[in-house]
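Me: I keep going back and forth on a fold encoding question. No explanation is needed for now; the record alone will do.

Assistant:
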Amino acid sequence: MKPGARTPGRADAPARGRARGRAVRAALWPCACSLLLLCASVRPCFGQEVGTAPEHSPFQDIITHQAFTLFAGRYAGAAGAAGTGARPGLMVGGRLDVRLSGALGLTATFAEASTSRLQINSSGDTAKVMGNLDLKLLSADLGFTLNLTGDKTWHHLAPYVTIGAGLTLPSARVVDPGGFELGTGFSVAASLGTRIYLSRSFALRLEARDLYYRYTFPLSFFDRPFAAHADGSPVLSNSVGDREWYQNYIFWVGLSYGFNF
């Protein structure tokens, strides 16, 4: 097959990829909103027990309105259908929380993952593996947090859910021969976690996060025989769109300091 020639049915793949992306995004936001509404409906259940002395109640007031967290954890990256996406690695960063009301808060998160990815040279007649490339992956987002126990802790616990959106990008731009690069992309993040209060100002934070963003594959991944495939098939089959969304799970632990400004 001549370089640059498109395989049968390949013309429909971009449309399939875009349609799949729109469908996923359309399903994601209603689910997120439903989760927030459900949590909000449960909120009245968490209140001071009638007749219980404050010092003996499992509920204690959170007296700070802002908190900054330093965290570290595992970025379980999704390499994607071509294997060229960011792989698992260590992630570190910081998070700023501002309480807007009893249950609702605003959060800003910045993180850096030390990861790597596979490089493929698809510029010639045959696509070949070049090797692994170490990279720093940066992620920043803004979001809203719903504190499930409002402005109180329950047995020193303050569980929450967060929905946010931002950008994910590598610290340096590298374009592989053939056109693939891990570029700047819009991302959506959903988190579930809890703070475990050690004192009035300090808390241990545990969080699981799903960072959702898109890879864009060059057409050369679909019309060049791949040397790593014994049957001579290309890097990607026609069933894969040239734009695909992937979930990247993150698990981290951090130390929070609460303050009033």
